[in-house]
Amino acid sequence: MPKKTKLKMKNKKSADQKAKNEKAVKVLNKVEQPIKEKKIKAPRSFQTLKGMKDILASENKYWEYVKTKAKNFALNYGYEAIETPILEETALFNRAVGNETDIVSKEMFSFVDQGEENVCLRPEATASVVRSYVQHGMLNLPQPVKFFYFGPMFRYDRPQAGRLRMFHQIGLEAIGEESPIMDAEIIFFVYNFLKDLGLKTVIEINSIGCPKCREAYKTKLVNYYRDRKSGLCEDCQKRLVKNPLRLLDCKEEGCQTYKEDAPQIVDWLCDECKNHFVGVLEYLDESGVTYNLNPRLVRGLDYYTKTVFEFFSDNADGVEGRQDALGGGGRYDGLVEYLGGRPTPACGMALGLERIILKLKENNIEIPALRKPDIFLAQLGEQARKKSFILIEELRKSGFYVVHSCSKKGLKKQLEMANKDGVKYTLILGQKEVIDGTIIVREMEGGAQEIVDFNKTVQEMRKKIILQ
Ligand code: HAM
Questions:
Q1: Is the CB of residue 139 less than 8 Å from the CB of residue 344?
Q2: Ligand 1 centroid vs 170 CA: distance in angstroms?
């Protein structure tokens, strides 16, 4: 290549490089330009949805107390725990609870899932338990099969004290027994359970018969209400056509006035339903349970047959129109067959946990405190902290409830924390104890301290604390 051409190329290369460098500097300069300050919005905070609540630590003792007592009661009465999914096919409740009920027509949290299935958050659990009984062929087990459950239910209702959109129920379902003794046992369970919690209970009871005797009664009821149609609320005008029994359940003041003189279903019960109801009442009388016969009690779910009942906390004002029932239930002899099983009698009930807790508080009923920690482990210095970490785990493995502070607070602060936690003993591990292979056991009440062999800490604490 001639020398001239070579030089030309070299010059071009360095010109290119120069241009590149200038561009890079420009970019850098641009980066260094002060960024125009954008107004950054503070992240929004979130709240629970309307009608839904967090259950905070301060509430725990109530929840644990009521749930544990209910579980022990249920086991003593021969009920076994069942858990069903919170999400179910919407059609299950349409069919079991009834399309014309408020629960299904107004209050279901239902939606179409990613697989195009119509699903909903369960509004109650009886339908789910029956679905499970049929799905798992439990009709082949010795009958009755007795279930106990606890869990959240969802209803899109107007929230107010004691009425939530997510609430919790404790429930019993006894499937496969037709005897009135089963209805009475369930009522007796609730009566004893609420009494044991310290709550006085009013039991309202009725029989709404079977589909056979109910038909004749419905005609009588419709005739009575048809003459008073113009005075009924909008919902009741619809109920007159679609679900006449619900007319007796309306809480609107205007409609309540007509209830008084409405025909009573007990006068229309067939012999079988009448005998069954008398049987239930006799068992209750036998066991000393007091109840009110309430001919207008019909309940808000369509699956009931024969016995229906509700529980209220004792209140001088009576129960008419009250919407704060602590629980309710009844017999549902047609539901198993209606959900694809063999004809099978059944009976059950559910209690609202939030409402029970509300009553416990209103009545200032003392609830035992939750278990307090047994031991606080205070440590001073890096080495002590490492050694105490292992010791804490050993103590926990041996059944002790141990608390500690992982930050580097001084002994005074840690003893203050131990006092606040209400522990009986604090173990103190400082640098000296690490070197000596010992640990200090401090009795919090009197402040007496003793030094023990570090390797025998668990044995020493076992002598001092009797674990339940
Ligand atoms: P339920 O009467 O609809 O019956 O509900 C039972 C209890 O759940 C009520 O008495 C009340 O304590 C509580 N409850 C209902 N709705 C709410 C709400 N929105 N907020 C707070 N608590 C509420 C049933 O669910 C039937 N499955 C009971 C049953 C079981 N029948 C036969 N087996």
A1: yes
A2: 9
